[in-house]
Amino acid sequence: MNHPIDTIGAFKGELIDIRRDFHSHPELGFEEHRTASKIAAYLRALGLPTHTGVGRTGVVAVIDGESQSSGASVGLRADMDALPITELGNAPYRSCVPGRMHGCGHDGHCAMLLGAARYLAQTRRFNGTVYLYFQPGEEGYAGAREMIQDGLFERFPAQRVFALHNWPSLPAGHIGLNRGPMMAAIDRIHIRVQGQGGHGAHPHQAIDPILVASQIVANVHTIVSRSVDPADAAVISFQSIQAGAPEALSVIPDTASLDGMVKWFKPSVQQRLRQRLHEVVEAVARAHGARAELRYEELYPPTINAPDEAALVARVATRLFGADKVDSDMDPSMGSEDFAFMLQQRPGAYFRLGQGMQEGRFLHHPMYDFNDETIPVGSALFAGLVEEALPR
């Protein structure tokens, strides 16, 4: 039997062209109409039953093996959406949409799953059914949850699910994963500080919300170090602080707002962080004579691999690429991933595919670009998982 990567390598150029086309035409979450249309057209050209509009803009295709007597099934997921970033790279296929770019490599994920689709549709060397999930809105839109709420697992009932993400810090073509927590949960926080405006030259007559917001930031950053067990991973970070107007010289504004995120693995840690955030925010504001309201929104749960499915990925990757290219005990990341919603519904595994990129070209960077040479690797691993999970 030929190695899957040999078969896929015969149409590697086609997959690279697809990836670069997606890169040139990035679309944000639930706006992936062009991307979904291109994916659906490719799948239908392979003769596969293809369904669109799943979870708003998602696409699902079905591949039956040469036999379905086992009744077993596997789901493979790729995310489709881009980021609201202005690309700084100068590749000939750079983004042609201002303020949009594939800075997280989802264009590559789609190309790899399409490569697996073509291989599996041609060979059918498995007993059971494969569902290909092309998911919208991973970047903060909870597109996986949207597909599930749209009946994903009732309509396309995979018994096990798998997904990958490119990883620039891993050598190109290497696979990394573990048998437990892979990615942290993420929650969103918004804080509104109500002060009292006044003249900048007479601050004693005002309650400065900018000062209060600054003190909140300083005190919140002690929560993890002083309220969470050092053995437990947690992060609180702010990404935005807004107050007043630059042109309003000597004007102390009435309000200030802060936006940030909370990361955790254990539910008990989440509860502790949430409690302490409320306590600290309200107490700091009160100490300055101001008021503050905290809105806490749960976004994605932690991404936790099932041990058996993680072992399957490691075993297949070792067989296909060699033990020296597989790290099956990789440290978790404090990044987040909404494939977690699928893993709450079905056993499965989420793994990383090395990109071997230059230092600084990390995910979500305006110079990031997917390494096309790794496309056949990802496609082959997806295909190999199917052939091992659904043996003839």
TrEMBL record:
<feature type="binding site">
    <location>
        <position position="104"/>
    </location>
    <ligand>
        <name>Mn(2+)</name>
    </ligand>
</feature>
<keyword id="KW-0464">Manganese</keyword>
<feature type="binding site">
    <location>
        <position position="106"/>
    </location>
    <ligand>
        <name>Mn(2+)</name>
    </ligand>
</feature>
<dbReference type="InterPro" id="IPR036264">
    <property type="entry name" value="Bact_exopeptidase_dim_dom"/>
</dbReference>
<dbReference type="Pfam" id="PF01546">
    <property type="entry name" value="Peptidase_M20"/>
</dbReference>
<keyword id="KW-0378">Hydrolase</keyword>
<feature type="domain" description="Peptidase M20 dimerisation">
    <location>
        <begin position="188"/>
        <end position="285"/>
    </location>
</feature>
<feature type="binding site">
    <location>
        <position position="364"/>
    </location>
    <ligand>
        <name>Mn(2+)</name>
    </ligand>
</feature>
<feature type="binding site">
    <location>
        <position position="165"/>
    </location>
    <ligand>
        <name>Mn(2+)</name>
    </ligand>
</feature>
<keyword id="KW-0479">Metal-binding</keyword>
<feature type="binding site">
    <location>
        <position position="139"/>
    </location>
    <ligand>
        <name>Mn(2+)</name>
    </ligand>
</feature>
<protein>
    <submittedName>
        <fullName>Amidohydrolase/peptidase</fullName>
    </submittedName>
</protein>
<dbReference type="InterPro" id="IPR002933">
    <property type="entry name" value="Peptidase_M20"/>
</dbReference>
<dbReference type="InterPro" id="IPR017439">
    <property type="entry name" value="Amidohydrolase"/>
</dbReference>
<dbReference type="Pfam" id="PF07687">
    <property type="entry name" value="M20_dimer"/>
</dbReference>
<dbReference type="GO" id="GO:0050118">
    <property type="term" value="F:N-acetyldiaminopimelate deacetylase activity"/>
</dbReference>
<dbReference type="InterPro" id="IPR011650">
    <property type="entry name" value="Peptidase_M20_dimer"/>
</dbReference>
<dbReference type="GO" id="GO:0019877">
    <property type="term" value="P:diaminopimelate biosynthetic process"/>
</dbReference>
<dbReference type="GO" id="GO:0046872">
    <property type="term" value="F:metal ion binding"/>
</dbReference>
